[in-house]
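Re-running Ectoine/hydroxyectoine ABC transporter substrate-binding protein EhuB to confirm reproducibility after the cluster update. Everything else is unchanged from the original entry.
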Amino acid sequence: MAPSALKTSLRRRSKGMVAAVAVAALALTGCTSTDTDDDSSLLQTLQERGSVTVGFAGEAPYSFMENGELTGATVALHREIFGNLGIETVEGVNADFGALIPGLQANRFDVVSAGMSILPERCEQAAFSEPEFNYTTALMVTEGNPMNLTDMQSVADSGARLATMTGAIESDYATELGIESMQVATPQDGMDAVTSGRADVFALTGISLNWMKNNNPDAPVEVTQSFVAEINGVPQVGAGGTVFRTDDQELLDAYNEELAKITSDPEKYLSIVGEFGFTEEEMPDPELTTADLCAGVE
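Result of re-run:
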């Protein structure tokens, strides 16, 4: 999709997200691990501490645990960027995807590391970095794709039983299209729903589903070709970034300055995230900004 088309294809979505976030926040209230002194900024505090705590949801290849170590494309970006800011250690706190923004607001962690979609409703509750990834959606189905599913509209037309991850953009696509979806907490739960027969299809970002299939070669599933979801004829542009609290502007500005050095240099970008399956196709479009995405431009 051309850069000019990207901008004109944005629209407001995720109507159900505010309620989900509010419910999850109740469970997190009172949990604090990153409180800072009123007289110092979070950036200064993290530099003095030498570490940053990120919230993640275990979605490979963005941010996940492997052999007891926090890893993934967003984690790799964070180690590079925060390291350049004098913050050498990146630590993680695992949470369900739908609980990440409430956990950030409750000071359970300093930022969210999950490749989270930049959406107007989320921008009302938190601040996002400039885009770090562009991505598309795909479907995980049983081997042979017996229902011949190709995109979200085909799921709606077929009456297939759909699984989506709580808080993820695919859940909002389903709502917009009038599809009743089974909510799962993690990508693994989504794949399990398909392999057990509880769901016919699991929708998630293409790069996540392909990573799962490649790392579970014996699972009786396949992943469809990635696509740009369309709602009411409007392509839905997916772009994700790191999430900050709204009052941590100094940290956000410093982060964006370092991020721009990476996303403007394809060789540098791929040297950091390429090992996790990301290519130049996932590089953020320089004409698509967080301000655009937060505004929900039609």
